[in-house]
Amino acid sequence: MVLPTPEGSTLEMDPMEYTLRKRLPRKLPKRRNDVYVNMKTDFKAQLARCQKLLDSHREICIHGLGLAINRAINIALQLQTSSQGALQLAANTSTVELIDDLEPEDPDEAGEPLTRTRNNSAIHIKVFYPNP
Amino acid sequence: MELSGSRDACQTTNVSASSPLLKQTHASGFKKVCRIEEESTCPFPGLPAGVLEMRVKEGSKIRNLMGFAMARMQDEPGDMGQTGLRRVVFSGSGRAVTKTITCAEIMKRKIGGLHQMTKLQYKGLREIWESQEGGDSEVTVHRTLPSISILLSKDPLDPLEPGYQPPENALWSERNGGEASQAAEKRSVDCSETPAEPQAKRVYQFGSCLLQTLAGPGSGSPANSGSARRLTAHAERAVFLSEIPAC
After folding, report:
1. Is some CB atom of chain B closer than 8 A to the CB atom of A26?
2. Which of B74, B103, B75, B106 is nearest to B89 (CA)?
3. Mean pLDDT lowest for which of B97-106, B145-154, B185-194, B204-213?
4. Interface contact A70, partner B, CB < 8 A
5. Pick from B43, B141, B165, B218: most CB atoms within 10 A?
6. Could you tell me if B139 and B13 are in contact, meaning their C-beta atoms sit under 8 angstroms apart?
């Protein structure tokens, strides 16, 4: 296995294979009116859930990570159009760190599990009825 | 779904992007997108002129975008008497939204103390498809895409406007433990009881930024349940990881 040289040259990908496991992003403590959007659940189901929460709460917060940013924005804009402009949107963006675990394929090869960190974008949209 | 009849010799049908007719166009030889026209809902809501506008497209390279934007923002010796450029707007729609947000985040990371204003709206798009065979019929497709515009400014913006986000230096710093504990104090009372792992601190940082920027009325109550839930979430994640089969 090739270790990074002190000169700071790039780490060479060694011939041993690694399995990539993505760690789950940190799940924040969830208030009742927090909605996390993903790409696995049906769009209409998430939209209906947000609509139902909006009826009981005056404001909800929609979070989206990576590819789900588009869907989160879509849900928020759909809620706004179906409320005939009574709702207001406030969007905040942030960066989330995601950690991948690289594990050696062959348990005989004494490779150490590496971790790789990458950054992803996230959006948090507050949907609320403005105070009169 | 809108279908309007032909007006002149060449048949023109208007469809909305979700109609089943669009799938027929893919199948029946309307292969190429010949012309794309975008409806101009351009102006950022209520912004003065003299601002650098970066239009992020789906195929834009972040390296090129950031090189240009950073050079313009950091260009100190301005010929107008003021120090370089004070504001920049990143805008993108459809598949470019994520890239737009990434560009803005990278700029915020490299240049600190930037105030951010985020606006969301729908952008209309009119595509004109022409038939490959026959050549005398064309279809106009209307799409509405979600679009985002992010304004980054060195000057302070109106904090009361929805979509405002203060500079990150005020809320958290990545490696600084002191600020993390200070921010965590604002969030929950019983944070001092939890062990000070670096991972837990990051949760505080992200969560406190979130709750501070949103400042909802319910930010006080979930803090108590939040700390307990965070510890179990950490344990759950460790269990989850071991149960996932190797992919």
Report:
1. yes
2. B103
3. B185-194
4. yes
5. B165
6. yes
Interface test with B, best of A22, A63, A94 (most B CBs within 10 A): A94
Q: Which residues contact B125 (CB under 8 A, 6 or more apart)?
A: B36, B37, B38, B39, B93, B94, B142, B143, B144, B145
Q: Which residues of chain B make contact with A96, given a CB cutoff of 8 A?
A: 206
Interface of B with A in 25-64 (CB under 8 A): none
Q: Could you tell me what percentage of chain A is helix, strand and coil, using 3-state DSSP and rounding each to the nearest 5?
A: 20, 35, 40
| Nearest residue to B118 (alpha-carbon basis) of B161, B56, B167 | B161
- Of B213, B102, B222, give the one whose Cα is nearest residue B165: B213
Query: Are A126 and B229 an interchain contact pair (Cβ–Cβ within 8 Å)?
Result: no
For B185, the enclosing helix (H) or strand (E) is: helix B177-187
CB distance B73 to B51 below 8 Å: no
pLDDT at B143: 85
CB contact under 8 A, A70 and B246: no
Question: Which residue out of A88, A92, A106 would a mutagenesis test of the B interface target, given it has the greatest number of B Cβ atoms within 10 Å?
Answer: A92
**pTM, whole model, 2 decimals?**
0.65
Interface-testing mutation among A19, A58, A69, with chain B (most B C-beta atoms within 10 A): A69
Give how far B71 is from chain A: nearest CA, Å.
Answer: 23
Average pLDDT over residues B73-86: 64
DSSP A16-53: S-EEEEEPPPPPPP--TTEEEE-SSS-HHHHHHHHHHH
pLDDT at A9 over 90: no
**pLDDT in the model for residue B209:** 45
